[in-house]
Amino acid sequence: MDSKNKKVPGRLVVFLFGETDMNLEATEVVPARTDKNAPSAPSYPDVIPKQKIIRVEKRDCDGIEVRFVVKAYLPDVVVVEASLDMDDILSNTTLEFKRKLINECRKILGEFGCDPLFDEEYSVYCISGYSGDPEVYLSRYGATIAAFLKNERIELDEEEVKATLSTYLKYGKDDITIVDWDGAFIFDASGDFASNIELFEIANLQLLKSRILDYDLDVRLEKTLRLMGASKGLPVLRSRDVRKIVKEIIEIRTQSILESEAVERNIKLIGDWYSAKLYSLISKKFHLDSWKSEIKEKLDTLEDVYTMATENFSVSYRATLEFVILAGWFILLLLYVGEFLFVR
């Protein structure tokens, strides 16, 4: 760190999440990635969702051999993680190379039929092997670090740099983790990155699930409005469609509660430990609480719409049934009158 132009070795980790309709068969369970020298936390079983390895392979990217690990978060999420050690992780070619890794990860997701419109990518820059306070890196390379976190090749404004570097967590004297929307920098002199990376993956998993659920709710709301506005079709059939959608929305609400709260509830069991603090920081940066609130509002809106639709179709059905009964009596009356006149 004697020169600003000195190379900074580090490890680049990028991962991409996607949802698939395929039946994910895994070959191995990956235990929670904890390191003996990592910041301490109590041991709670099943706090971190279990991953399962689908395959591990090495691919050539611009003449560089890169390790790719394909994993599953059951039942339907695939994550592709690419990682490699770099001689200078702050090189001006890093962002372009990272983009190529993301594209390669996206190709692998395509093999599982994942929708490219719904994937989540994230990059983690890991730096170790130094001595002293890592904040020295921020004073010397802060502008470059902020640009990398923003995926920008232009020089950022000084205020933007300060704002970007202000979202961090410092636990020990020789570590610091800087969190942003698209990426993070982890400084740890001993190289214990695995447990932190796992938390970033879990947060991205939550974000992906929230985005997909939010879209699904929009589609269902639009479908319901079209159904209510339809001028044709028997009320009894339309009512049946509404009942089917009501059943689906109940299932969605149950699934949403289980998926969105299970991880956070378990992590909160850790209390005021490092992992809980870091996950809270990541959640805030990813606006996970805002996503949760928006989804809850849409679920409430859908339930209100479905309630009104059900009542509307119920009334319509009763009115139709009454009309059919009256028409039947009227026909019988005509037949009776006709028979009376014919007999006469």
Tell me about this structure:
The relative contact order is 0.12. A hairpin with a 3-residue loop joins strand 8 and strand 9. Helix content is 52%, strand content 19%. It has 7 helices and 9 strands. It has 344 residues and is an alpha+beta fold. The longest helix is centred in the last third of the chain and has 56 residues.
Feature tags:
344 residues; 2 domains; nine-stranded mixed beta sheet; 9 strands; 19% strand; elongated
Give me a quick take on this structure.
The chain is an alpha+beta fold and 344 residues long. The protein has helices spanning 94-110, 135-149, 158-165, 194-229, 235-268, 274-286, 288-343; strands at 10-19, 28-30, 51-61, 64-73, 77-86, 119-127, 168-169, 175-179, 183-188. A hairpin with a 3-residue loop joins strand 8 and strand 9.
Blueprint (SSEs and pairs):
Layout: E1 10-19, E2 28-30, E3 51-61, E4 64-73, E5 77-86, H1 94-110, E6 119-127, H2 135-149, H3 158-165, E7 168-169, E8 175-179, E9 183-188, H4 194-229, H5 235-268, H6 274-286, H7 288-343
Parallel strand pairs: 6-9
Antiparallel strand pairs: 1-5, 1-6, 2-3, 3-4, 4-5, 7-8, 8-9
